[in-house]
Amino acid sequence: MRCPYCSNKETQVRDSRPSEDNSTIRRRRVCPGCGGRFTTFERVQLRELYVLKRTGQKVVFDRDKLMRSVQVATRKRPVDIDKLEQMVSGIVRQLENRGDTIVSSELIGTLIMEGLRQIDDVSYVRFASVYKDFREAKDFEEFLEEISDTSK
To answer: 52 phi and psi, to 5 degrees?
Structure first.
């Protein structure tokens, strides 16, 4: 593993441990060249996935991008990062288990919304506002009415 600080090609693993759900291995590393410390994660990838965007463009699926978008939605909310990791890992497993190598961005957005709704309502609405491209306050009102009707 290359050091992110000095680009040294040799780094040493100081500590390895599985995540709570045993879906990843967390490795603490140190660079003998500069002394820099960093963490890497090792995950199983069943198959290479591609995302078909609304524009028709096909791009390689990026788990980290998915995680970043979820973190943006949950920023400054009392949400445990481990819950988010479990949610994202579950979404990736669902996508891989579908059997298709190409998945639509709409499907991914729907799965994220389902997951966030279970974790935090405010984060769910934040993500929905971007995903559904809310333009004005009326869009929020309609969405909130819709979700309050389905939760009754």
So the answer is: -95, 110
Per-residue pLDDT of 75-96, as tens digits, reads 999 999 889 988 998 999 899 8
Query: How is the chain split into domains, by residue range?
Result: 1-44, 46-140
**Cα 35 to Cα 30, 40, 42, 64, 76, distances in angstroms:** 6, 16, 22, 26, 32
Q: Are strands 102-104 and 50-52 parallel, antiparallel or unpaired?
A: parallel
Residue with tokens 């709570």, as numbered in its chain: 20
Query: pTM above 0.70?
Result: no
* Spatial distance between the Cα atoms of 141 and 129, rounded to a whole number of angstroms: 11
Place of tokens 């997951």: 115
